[in-house]
């Protein structure tokens, strides 16, 4: 008998409530029936669900795209469920041993801990990090021996593996798939087995690996986890998935002004999706904004201000949110300086070429980038646009160097 | 500089001699250049080559087909090289864990030792078994951990594995290949790495697995083994590869009379191939027989008598060879009893149906087989053919029961 059929009236309402919130914004729940029953079981037995999220220890840069899954974790937390964060350090410590590629260097224990800490701190801006279980999968995977590997592998067909989209594509186009890559889903599934996870979260691009955990748990005669796949959010360009490598991201660790400014630059079509998936507004609040936008009551720019405000508030606090909104208004709407300009003490030449000045200040990484920025009209000294890359600047106390729309530096002279 | 270029005159002759004998009858040497240089190195350094043969511990029935490889091992031994026999007990002890098939039971340690002993005893009929190194690969494979598995696997592409004929065929025809099966070649190669084998022998059907050892050794920065693939010999039917399951084999453990009789039944086209690959005649002797057969000087039947004689001599001794030849002549050529008929003490009913009698004596496994044999005129009592399956036999002392052409039993009464 299913747990959903064993609940009393009050419990049924609780189930309905949890199900509605937890399935909100989710791309795929597999299988939905089982998800409902897991929640029902948790309510009936008064026992939290174990909700797993696996993390790659090699890339700890967390951006607003991650809040899609972080917000979901937060909702689980709010219903009293347990979050299991797994740092996938086993493969990280092996490195990428692929023979023919430039071998990826194995991470040291220290690097793994450092990266885990980064996740920890940055995730702590969204979820209650103290209530989270943190696991390193090398703890159990390093103990698996060849016999067990063979037994794990015996439950998997090669054809099934080649169904995974990227494997299929590479096989079809004669690009190498290395045999150890087949073990990534197996290991991820093994993690679920060890932790007896009830739920695993992942992006839609993780579908194969996350579903694979069900198979491994079944092999061990265990109750299978339910999979929640969350949509991937497009980056600032509105096209590509948000990622560090595409430079179309809002970092969770960025300054309030940068978060605010970057949010203001998203395409209008993404406003609602960002609200739904990445902000901490309630279902009702988002639904209201949607209606107002559709009716023309709310201007897209004002919706974005609200969104940007909510991000800064979520990642910092109300004060910072207010301040960054004022700053933004000053720079973009009144074409003014921001309220606070960071100061840099200048101890070098007082007569210096613009290219040297901007690179010395680390405002841009190379002179050719400064040149390009000058061409685009993006470099100003005391609000005056620089046109000639050969310009020599006379540095005086309090002079302001501006790069692009959001980078300002005020130079202080030593003496 | 290659070793072949470092030999003096005498050593060059030795190289030529070894190379000629060791490559005789081999289907494929891969690569030939390296094989020559391995021998040259062994001569130059006065250091035996390590010649590996892997054995499946689940099927220890050795037949004349195995003498193809045993004779080759013997030649290596005669030149002073070292034979490494590997009992592949690691997988045998895991059993076949394939999920969907009827799981093959794992062998116990005791069964593995027993099967290894069987190989040992039967191989001892052809090669100098005391000079052989015997290894069990569970000794090292059970110690391999997941990290090492990943590293081994990272050197293999899935496409390369799917090049193996049977994998390719199964993938194409949508029959499952289980992931652990990909590890059989890897393990076999790992054995070569551990034992630092110079040469690995195998049947032509083992090409992929045996060549794979080169890749694993290379991964460990080791000198690569050379592969000698030996032809598979057809069985008595002249069509299928000799094997126990096809019942077309001559067992190494069979009685001299059976070995002799079965050898006489091979098709004429196979005579030379059997001489070349399975007998212990020299190259020159075989070449002489070939010429005589071609010129019609030697009748195929007489060639087969020589072959059968050589098998019994190889597996037993000269005496037995002579005796089985006389027996054969008596039965088949003069239609007489064999010289010696095995005696069985009969303590059961003295009046017994023919079906019961033959099955009680274990001459045939079932009554339906006795019935079929009677139909074919293959059952005789004191040389008199039985026609009716309902015949009742009156057992008297010394009565002879004959089944087929070669099975005779003389019944002795207890009192």
From TrEMBL, chains A, B:
Matches recorded under HAMAP family: Tyr_tRNA_synth_type2 (MF_02007)
Keywords: Aminoacyl-tRNA synthetase, ATP-binding, Cytoplasm, Ligase, Nucleotide-binding, Protein biosynthesis, RNA-binding
Taxonomy, superkingdom: Bacteria
Protein name (database record): Tyrosine--tRNA ligase
The protein's Enzyme Commission number: 6.1.1.1
Classification lineage: Bacteria, Bacillati, Bacillota, Bacilli, Bacillales
Gene: tyrS
Enzyme class: ligase
Residue span of motif 'KMSKS' region: 241-245
Subcellular location(s) of the protein: Cytoplasm
A Pfam short name: SYY_C-terminal
Keyword Cytoplasm annotated: yes
Function: Catalyzes the attachment of tyrosine to tRNA(Tyr) in a two-step reaction: tyrosine is first activated by ATP to form Tyr-AMP and then transferred to the acceptor end of tRNA(Tyr).
Positions contributing to ATP binding: 244
Residue span of motif 'HIGH' region: 57-66
Subunit description: Homodimer.
Family annotation (InterPro entries): aa-tRNA-synth_I_CS, aa-tRNA-synth_Ic, Rossmann-like_a/b/a_fold, S4_RNA-bd, S4_RNA-bd_sf, SYY-like_C, Tyr-tRNA-ligase, Tyr-tRNA-ligase_bac-type
Reactions that this protein is recorded to catalyse: tRNA(Tyr) + L-tyrosine + ATP = L-tyrosyl-tRNA(Tyr) + AMP + diphosphate + H(+)
GO MF annotations in UniProt: tyrosine-tRNA ligase activity
Family indicated by similarity: Belongs to the class-I aminoacyl-tRNA synthetase family. TyrS type 2 subfamily.
The keyword Lipid biosynthesis belongs to this UniProt entry's keyword annotation: no
Location of the RNA-binding S4 domain: 353-414
